[in-house]
Specification:
CATH topology of the largest domain: N-terminal domain of MutM-like DNA repair proteins
Structural class: alpha+beta
Order of helices and strands: HEHEEEEEEEHHHHEE
Radius of gyration: 20 Å
CATH class of the largest domain: Alpha Beta
Shape: globular
Number of strands: 10
Strand order of the largest sheet: 1-6-7-5
Number of domains: 2
Largest sheet: 4 strands, antiparallel
Low-confidence stretches: none
CATH architecture of the largest domain: Alpha-Beta Barrel
Number of helices: 6
Helix content: 10-25%
């Protein structure tokens, strides 16, 4: 499943490639991905010019000059590809966008995903994005003060808190493993027991680790809009059960944390 580093890269690439382009035609082969009918989506976006593309959490926001939005979420994974030639279009896809300059965009979901159209002025009513929490890539938004304030009244464990998209948007069960390791926190550590110094470190690690992953193009099994894979192939403790901890050499363990699996060093993350 793509997380913030992958989604951020896709959004930045789209912003570079399709800003200023006008939509000529839309094709939808899987209507259950939509929040409105195919005809309404075409009415909303056909002949509209892209103004900007940005990421928040696991969503890509494509904003148009009309004020309308196309909201994209790759769900459990998928390929969002940009084509300069109609001959490179994949055989199977759920969504296709043709631009007036004969460039194309296709989305092929691995399992499920979302393609939502939102009218001008109605983004605040979109239930799947209007509750998204702080974005680690927004320095003005993801300040330590705001992050710490979110932690202040929470009583659960830190992993569940970070995976809740209403708190911090974009972290999933892949990157959370090494984030907690680098911060020296056990995934089941209760939030009230986390010291002020540990909170400062955690805030820094979240921004730094996700930024480093984005700079590498994201996960090796995820593709960018040019069909190129990312370079993140290995983790410090994530998915390395039985391997030596890079800090102390103790074997990494796989445990259950809430409803998800976690990989930890039992010595460094007590």
């Amino acid at each position: 499943m793509p997380e913030l580093p992958e989604i951020y890269n896709l959004a930045m690439q789209l912003n570079r490639e399709i800003t200023g382009k006008k939509i000529k035609e839309l094709e939808v082969r899987q209507e259950k991905c939509l929040n409105i009918s195919v005809s309404d989506l075409r009415i909303l976006l056909t002949d509209q010019i892209v103004k900007a593309c940005e990421a928040k959490g696991k969503w890509i926001f494509v904003r148009f000059e009309s004020g309308a939005y196309l909201l994209l979420n790759l769900g459990m994974g998928g390929n969002l590809l940009y084509h300069s030639n109609i001959k490179t279009l994949p055989e199977k896809y759920q969504f296709r966008c043709d631009f007036t300059d004969n460039f194309y965009l296709t989305i092929s979901f691995w399992w499920f995903g979302y393609i939502h159209g939102v009218k001008s002025g109605e983004l605040i009513f979109h239930k799947m994005t209007n509750t998204l929490g702080l974005s680690p890539f927004d320095k003005a938004e993801f300040t330590f003060e705001r992050f710490n304030a979110l932690l202040a009244d929470k009583r659960g464990n830190i992993k569940s808190f970070l995976l809740d998209q209403r708190n911090v948007a974009g972290i999933g069960n892949v990157y959370i493993q090494d984030i907690l390791f680098k911060a020296g926190l056990h995934p089941n550590r209760k939030i009230p027991d986390i010291t002020p110094e540990e909170r400062v470190l955690l805030h820094y690690v979240i921004m730094d680790y996700l930024k480093s992953a984005a700079e590498l193009g994201g996960l090796a099994y995820e593709k960018d809009i040019y069909n190129k894979n990312g370079l993140v192939k290995e983790f410090l403790v994530g998915y390395r059960e039985g391997k030596e901890c890079p800090k102390c050499g103790i074997p990494i363990e796989k445990i259950k944390a809430g409803s998800t699996a976690s990989f930890i060093c039992p010595h460094c993350q007590r």
